[in-house]
Amino acid sequence: MTEESKKIRLRVGRLVVPILLVGFYVWYGSLILELPQGPGEEGPLGPSFIPWLWASLLIVLTLVEIATGNLGARRDEERVVIERKSALDALILCLLLAGFAVLMQYVGFSAAVIAFLAVSFWWSGIRSWKIIIPYLVIFAFVVNYVFHHVLKVPLPQDWLF
Amino acid sequence: MNLLVEGIVQALAWKPFLFAVLGSFMGIIFAAIPGLTVSMGIILLLPFTFHMASVTSMSLLVGVFVGGMTGGSISAILLNIPGNPAAIVTSLDGHPLARKGRAGVALGVAFFSSFLGGLFSLVCLVTIAPQLADFALKFGAPELASLVLLGLCLICGFAQTSMSKALISGILGLSFSTVGMDPIDSIPRFTFSVVQIQQGVSFLPVMIGLFAVPEIISGMRGSAVSLPDFSTRLRDLLPSPGTLAGLWKTLAQSSLIGTTIGLLPGTGSAVAAVLSYNTAQRRSPEPESFGKGKLEGVSAPEAANSAMTGGAMIPMLTLGIPGDPVTAVMLGALTIQGLAPGPLLFESHGGFVFSIFGSFFIALFLTIVIALLGIRLFVQVLRVPPGLLFPSIAVFCVIGAFALQNSFFDVFLMIGFGLLGYFMQKFDYPIMPLLLAIILGPVFEKNARMSLILSDGDPGIFFRKPISLTFLALALVYLVSVFLKRTSLFRKPGSA
């Protein structure tokens, strides 16, 4: 597989992003229509006035971007490239973070930190348990102590520390 | 002057002083490690300030800001890997000096240039900010709305990408800023009955998501670095008085450039560093020697990026308009402390404002002392494997997002904005306009609608007030000039 074929060439960037923006505009616009009428509903000064302004500007700019980016002068000037691996890394990290946040609510902060860090270290290529285990224990203890006991942040507690 | 002395005395109390030391230290570390940035450092340290007194919290944050402007030079000179975008230019001459065995001299000149640039910008901050705040007291709702619009236009214009992408990013931010209670009628908008966003989208999870998460994603798969050997003894780091005297012209012009650039929202330290480097090169009798290990090439960007700090704090403190992520966090920190940055801050909490100036002054001295004495430690920190460092930072991101409202919703908000920030970067959409629009959107909406209510819906109110008209004219002229500059119609034939 060539280096070229490993990459997703995102001319898509100039097509998908404007489509997403138009989708956002339609969704946002439909929500604006549902806004309850407030005391200032007379004339253009109600709660929907500013959202309409931004929605209108967004659609105009998106059309400009489509025109200049996809159909116009910049067609051959720029090409946005995302490495497949890099995008996958982003999704994995976000899933790990979400898993960490969910786990924390069930098993407490320290246990969740240990689990999250162990998986993250392994994933990022640190495989030496001689480094990982002492680091995890000390890190989880110190961070829990500083935030929960010193700074009084109500992190979910567990039986560990 | 008396107020400044009082401010310094307040900042010298043991707690603010201790946190200024910690802030400067952390600022240097965050800026020195490639992949971490001052913005990330200050965002992650913000949750620590929730339970602090206002003077102490600002001492910590100002310390990070000032320390961060110095720390970037360490990895730029030693590794040729800039610790932050502003240090990219420093590496052009700093690393060749290190390769010639003069890393100590290069680091010493970088530290002293940062110190002197910062000192110059502090003088400007102390003299200009109160005058500007006095003037800004004349602003009513139309002026404030126009000013915010001007600020957003400047931020979009300075983005290193297409104008339409920067504006789309800004408008997206403005759309997000409409979530929550309507500022005039108190009607919930786009909240989907979620209690956590009734007061709007919290800026801290958004900021952590947009700035820290993409950096963690990029940094996690990095590898440890090898460093050149050099002497870390103090006497080998201190530049001689003769060396510094030979650099005075470069230092003066770079400090001026840095402070001026800092005043403009959205420009940032990288612009200041590049501009001052180019100016120093252009004015040098030996321009061809730049890039090969010239001390002026280290001194100019370091003085400029440090001088930018004082400049950037002027619009944040006097007008409530942050110019970059760091000042945006400071603005948020002030808001969390129950203080509203803007002209009234100088009237109602003048002593506190001068304590910020005092903290700045102290942080400058602390930074150079810590940088010189702690260089051996900072070099060791550079050896920490990214695979160990970045997951640990991710834990602090989660705590930071959670701690503001003790809410897991904010953690998921951070993750969502992290993905958004990552893909925006990849698709070349700048993040700064989005972030600052989220912060400034409610200010604009409140003032714009109040103006229109006062004028019975007549938009002419924005054009009848001279100050408001000036801001709008400046915004229009600026946008048109940037657009024309980037349009092929005005490019020279044959140019790219």
Please give the alpha-carbon distance between the first and last residues of chain A. Answer: 50 Å
Strands side by side in the biggest sheet of chain A: 1-2
Major sheet size, sense and barrel closure of chain B: 2 strands, antiparallel
Q: Radius of gyration of chain B from the CA trace?
A: 22 Å
Shape verdict of chain A: elongated
Q: Mean of residue pLDDT of chain B?
A: 85
Mean of residue pLDDT of chain A?
78
Low-confidence stretches of chain A: 1-7, 71-80
What is the structural class of chain A?
mainly alpha
Task: Give the amount of beta strand of chain A, in percent.
Answer: under 5%
Structure in words:
The complex is a heterodimer of chains A (161) and B (496). With 161 residues, chain A is mainly alpha-helical. Chain A is built from six helices and two strands, in the order H-E-H-H-E-H-H-H. Chain A has two domains: 3-78; 84-150, no CATH class. Helices cover 68% and strands 5% of the residues of chain A. Chain A has a two-stranded antiparallel sheet with strand order 1-2. The N and C termini of chain A lie far apart (50 Å). Mean pLDDT of chain A is 78; it is low at 1-7 and 71-80. Chain B has one domain. A two-stranded antiparallel sheet of chain B has the order 1-2. In chain B, strand 1 (180-181) and strand 2 form a beta hairpin. The longest helix of chain B is centred in the N-terminal third of the chain and has 34 residues, at 103-136. The model of chain B is unreliable at 492-496 (pLDDT under 50). Chains A and B meet through helix 2, helix 3, helix 4, helix 5 and helix 6 of A and helix 8, helix 9, helix 19, helix 20 and helix 21 of B.
